[in-house]
Amino acid sequence: MTGRALALLQDAGPGRNGRWALLALCVLAAWLGLEQLSAQVWFLPAGLRLAMLWLTPTRRWGWLGAAEILAQATKSAVLGYPLVTFTFLAVCVAPWLIYAAVVYLLRGPRPAPPPDSPTRMLLLLLAGLLGAAGVSPLLWMFLVTYPMSTADSLASMFAFMYGDLIGQIVLAPLLVAAVHGSFRRPQRASLLRDLGLVLIGALGVFLVLQAYEDLAMYVLLLAFAPLFFLSFRHGWEGGALATALLAAVMQALVQTGLLTVNVTMLQLVLAVVGGGALVLGAASTALRRSHEVLAERHQELAAKTTELEMLAAELGQVGQRLARLEEQGQRELASELEYELGHAIHALGTRISLAFRDVRDEQGTRLLESLREQVREIQDSLRRALRQLRPPQLDTHGLQQALESGPLHEMLDDSGVVFEPTFDGPVDGLDEDARTTVYRICQAAVREAVRLEMVRRFALHLEVKPRDDGTRVVALALDLEFSPYVQHVPPLQLVPAIKDRALAMQGQYLLEPLVHGHRHSVRFVAA
């Protein structure tokens, strides 16, 4: 029901004149009924006027203006007042025009959203305040017929303004909340309980004031202070409902004579406390909504994080499979090269050695000696290449010996680089993937050191720490120390081969500057 009412009120399209005519009749009847309920404390039709202008687009304001003017004309005709007079125009027509102008300036031509933030609530209250301030001089000018002093004239204007303002604070937010369906919430039971407590407390204060009227300046504010508590707990909707009920109780007590406190004081306190409670409730609603949105974003972020973790695990597995395929390819390539080229070169060397028996002259002997030396160099180069592809020590003697005295040590030694390896923990207890990863990372760092041609010292520190879950934390630090005579140190640049191997093991790769060198640090968890 509330959804259809809101859709009708905020419909700016053409047509539907029959529905709007029926709505105008309902507004007319409501205006007349609220006017009968109005008294010295409030003027409730001002709240109806503000709420309807706030909820409807400017295209439909003609229906609202016609409904209110007809209601005013009906009241004037019943009371016997003439209709075609300046007084009727100033008192019955001009107030609606002033309110419409203020709402248009503050809100614009389109319907405003619910006042569920401090800014929107302040705009609604400011529209009502400016409208009441603009209407009160007209009402004083045409309704007050006897002469007054300046002070009495200002007091009369403020009395008119406070009547409209209390009617707006009491009725306008309540109507906006009802049309937007803001009371359909699971916290309705707690809202009713808190409303009961607030009304009981206010009635207690009003009874004290009935017995001791002089205490009004001391305890009157206590009757309205619980509005802040209710607005904080239940938002601006709870504040609007509590303000309306508390004002209704106050009006009933004033009319029955059970509350004899000065009406202006009651209006002023209700206006200040009620407006503050509504703004606080709007702030509480906005904060609660932001928390809900933040919780939803956290859930979405957690889901995305889980998805990314799954993708990272899959990519890590793919990287490990690629690394295994690469190692398998290098192993097979080394086997094929050794089988094909190694045997052929060995056979060639054997034939050259046999050819020495048939050669008698010195020139032929020198030629064969040169060929045999070249064959030895080819065999040595092939052996080095095969050890680079897959060092035998890595499979036969373990990772530590392959790093200490394997091909990497020979490459650094041939380049004149001092090699200083250190090991901590069960290095040779690593699985095949971890051993291969560590070796290939060290091989990439050694190639980088040889390529730079300014490295004089290569320090390797490998640490393996077992954990309680059976895995091992592998920490590898590779220090490349440059010659002190180098003027321009090369910039920090990640080595792609090291990065790829670290990512394949879902590890971390950091490149840090040293005093005169670079440090490549890799850390990962091995099975």
From TrEMBL:
Could you tell me the superkingdom of the organism this chain comes from? Answer: Bacteria
Organism (species) = Arenimonas donghaensis DSM 18148 = HO3-R19
Which GO BP terms, alphabetically?
phosphorelay signal transduction system
The MASE1 domain, residue ranges: 35-286
Instruction: Provide the primary localization.
Output: membrane
* Name this polypeptide is given: histidine kinase
Query: Is Kinase included in the keywords of this UniProt record?
Result: yes
Q: Keyword check for Transmembrane, yes or no.
A: yes
According to the record, the segments passing through the membrane are 20-43, 83-106, 122-143, 155-179, 191-209, 215-232, 239-259, 265-287
